[in-house]
Predict the 3D structure of the following.
Amino acid sequence: MKPSFLILSMLILCSPLFGQQDTLQQTIDGLLIEEQTENSVWKIKRWFYEDPQKLSPYKAQLEQKINLLLQSPLADFDAYLLALTMSGELITLSDETGKEVARMHRYYRDDMRQTADYHSWIWEDSVYQGQRSVSGLLLDLLGHVSDLDSQEELQLALANLEDCRLKMFAAASLIRRNVPVPAEEMKKIAADDEVRSTFFGMLEEMDKEAIFPKKYAKQPLLARSKMVDWLTYPTELGCVPGRIEALQEFRIDYDDVGEAIFYLWKFQKKGETEWLVGLSGPYLATEVPTANSYGYTFSKFEKLTDKKPEEHFADIMELIDSYHEEKE
């Protein structure tokens, strides 16, 4: 006896796959509905991280809706981040989107305070920190479009902004688009402790690290930058250190990856004389020079004089080892 059409229809409607497809389509449609935009962006981002293949059948709809979203007043930080995350893998951004993102960045560029001594004041300026985050994201996103308006905005940002973190995003996006970046701008970015390692890592991902200024493409300098970048996190020092100097290098031979290099640093908070200690790395000897460190960059903010360098190193290693063991 064959099952009736009604029973088959009910089985299909009640299946998890059908419900999921319905939810996906409704969520995609919700991108352009003001009351649903925020939740739709969050859900799509989560699905993309969990299983990109789940979204593949909806590529055309996602591409259309996300482009329209970025061209609308509904676009916000999370929408730009979603577009950046999915661009190149699942969606292509249109020239019209590029023009609108460039227009939005011009607004930020015109409004942001810029001075040569920006490191002396930006860490206490919450408004600038917010502007900096959005500006960097927009500049990064402009590396995934191809219109001339956005190229011009990237070049203007690179030439006129003092903040080397923003210069870095502009330069990386131009390089991604195969547009030459002036050598003097490359040197400015590479010379900056806050962004040197991040910039080198961006070029590594594009297989273009060979164009990084050779003077700064040295592992101790990349490790120093990694330490400084970590210290700028709001939950850590919250700014670049007033001074930072190499303390000692440590090497460990691992059975699976070979020799790994760790760098121990001493640093001072601005306006203070007490030396504190931090660690960056490890870097595999087979990969140097590289921005790829493997999760041991950290500081307990202990005083240099409290222990010998070897003891500082051992204590940080033990702490990070314990953290990784707990996660497993």
About this structure: Confidence is low (pLDDT under 50) at residues 1-19. The CA atoms of residues 48 and 106 lie 30 Å apart.
